[in-house]
Design brief:
Elements (H helix, E strand, L loop, with lengths): L1 H28 L23 H13 L3 H14 L16 H13 L17 H19 L9 H19 L6 H12 L3 H8 L3 H28 L1 H9 L15 H11 L9 H7 L2 H11 E2 L15 H4 L2 E5 L2 E4 L5 H14 L4 H24 L4 E4 L2 E2 L2 E2 L2 E5 L2 E5 L15 H19 L1
Parallel strand pairs: 1-2
Antiparallel strand pairs: 2-3, 4-7, 5-6, 7-8
Helix pairs in contact: 1-5, 2-4, 2-5, 3-4, 7-15, 9-10, 9-15
């Protein structure tokens, strides 16, 4: 009976796991040519898929390593900007469980590969290159579920309960991206790190206002570039003439042989994926000194072949730490525009917490968080409540006290350690340790 029970539980786990994977496959298979639409697909007839984290990660890196990073990362940048719409039904989003994280993983695998492996300019949309990459990325992601599966003879009610808890926790930690409230993030960087300008400038050569100032100008130039494309379409007479000649077809399809600067700029914008995310250095140099720009771009620019050992989805992603790629003199591709401010925060946080000002920083951050909490409570409750910051008991400060009607709330703020982008070198090791402790605990209960 015990063996039968184990088999039933194991089958239950396997069925749950395969349902997850087959759902991804079903979503991916919806990405078919129009000629195939309407054909019935029997998921039960799909071949068995073998998962292996190491093997699958290596194969995915091989797939993306052949592409020139300046174009591969530019296309990743475009896709990442589109995934902000949660309802978008467009490849690869109908196959990815965490689009931003998985796109960042693909970009990092590409740029950390040896430059000698490059054999193609960019992914050819006319064949299955991109689909093959997406399928392999789904396998890499699904393989972690397989690592959490019990070995033969290990199935039990307790293990099933552990699995039900572990998978959602894993998803939450490794699939969740940073929240992009740009203005709040800039304010947080300014508020937290400005008091430590002396140590920041002595180590990096820049002050906090330099980091945020450069970020703001980059953001401005990229926004202006997008506006310029629209303005050319609606205001330029020569562009309008070309648009009529091509019956309203998009500029990316025009075979333009002329020399009109407006038309040339528009065609370049729509045919070169790098242009959208390349800031105008002339504008930057009008506002920021060349020396400061050089320091900034050196800090946040990743080179092809940097961190060659990178391969795991669960590793700290080097492209999220350095989301800029230099593809020619004075030409920088901002791969993740909205994420750049988070990279700045991470750099400053690591710099200060690794200095002799660490303790003072944590004290400052705790007070900052507490003040923000009181501001929020006063804004929310208004005159219906009274909030006390650092109320005193026997002369000692006791965090935040909120009094409202018949209720008294004591709020203790906790500023946790900042989680790195993704996390650990190999999550398998962490899970094995977790599982070993779980087994040891259960053996003591028996």
């Amino acid at each position: 009976m015990a063996q039968l029970k184990d088999k039933v539980l194991r089958m239950h786990l396997l069925v749950s796991f395969m349902q997850t994977v087959k759902t991804k496959i079903r979503m991916l298979l919806s990405w078919l040519p129009k000629s195939n639409i309407g054909k019935k697909i029997n998921l039960e007839e799909l071949p068995e898929i073998q998962f292996n984290v190491d093997k699958d990660a290596n194969e995915l890196k091989e797939l993306v390593s052949i592409y020139d990073s300046q174009y591969f990362l530019a296309n990743i940048a475009i896709l990442a900007s589109m995934q902000a719409n949660p309802r978008i039904n467009l490849p690869p989003f109908n196959g990815f469980s965490s689009p931003f994280r998985q796109l960042a993983h693909l970009g990092a695998l590409n740029v950390t590969s040896n430059a000698e492996l490059i054999s193609k300019k960019e992914v050819d949309e006319k064949n299955n290159d991109w689909k093959d990459i997406v399928v392999q990325a789904i396998k890499v992601r699904a393989a972690y579920y397989g690592e959490m599966m019990p070995k033969e003879g290990e199935v039990s009610d307790e293990y099933y309960d552990l699995y039900k808890i572990s998978v959602p926790v894993f998803d939450s930690h490794f699939d969740t991206s940073t929240v992009n409230f740009e203005e709040q993030e800039i304010n947080k960087v300014t508020d937290l790190f400005t008091p430590f300008n002396s140590v920041i400038e002595s180590i990096s050569g820049l002050k906090v206002e330099d980091f945020t100032g450069i970020y703001n100008v980059i953001d401005y130039t990229l926004s202006e570039r997008m506006k310029e494309s629209y303005n050319l379409l609606v205001r330029s007479l020569t562009v309008k003439e070309e648009l009529l000649k091509h019956n309203g077809a998009p500029p990316s399809t025009w075979d333009y042989k002329g020399d009109d600067p407006d038309v040339l700029r528009l065609v370049e914008y729509h045919t070169d994926p790098r242009i959208k995310y390349t800031p105008d250095m002339c504008v930057l140099e009008r506002h920021i000194s060349p020396k400061k720009l050089e320091i900034f771009f050196d800090l946040f620019t990743i080179k092809r072949g940097e961190k060659p050992s990178y391969k795991y989805y669960t590793e700290i992603n080097p492209l999220l730490l350095k989301p800029i790629y230099k593809y020619s003199p004075n030409k920088y591709l901002i791969v993740f525009q909205k994420h750049l401010i988070h990279s700045i925060f991470r750099f400053l946080y690591d710099l200060v917490t690794n200095s002799d000002r660490q303790e003072k920083f944590f004290i400052h951050r705790g007070k900052w968080l507490q003040n923000k909490t009181v501001e929020l409570l006063k804004f929310y409750f208004g005159k219906q409540a009274r909030a006390f910051n650092e109320y005193k008991v026997d002369g000692q400060g006791q965090d935040v006290l909120l009094l409202t009607k018949d209720l008294a709330l004591i709020i203790e703020n906790k500023a946790h350690n900042e989680v790195k982008f993704s996390g650990v070198p190999n999550v398998k090791v962490i899970f094995e340790q977790y599982l070993a402790r779980f087994k040891k605990f259960n053996s003591k209960r028996i």
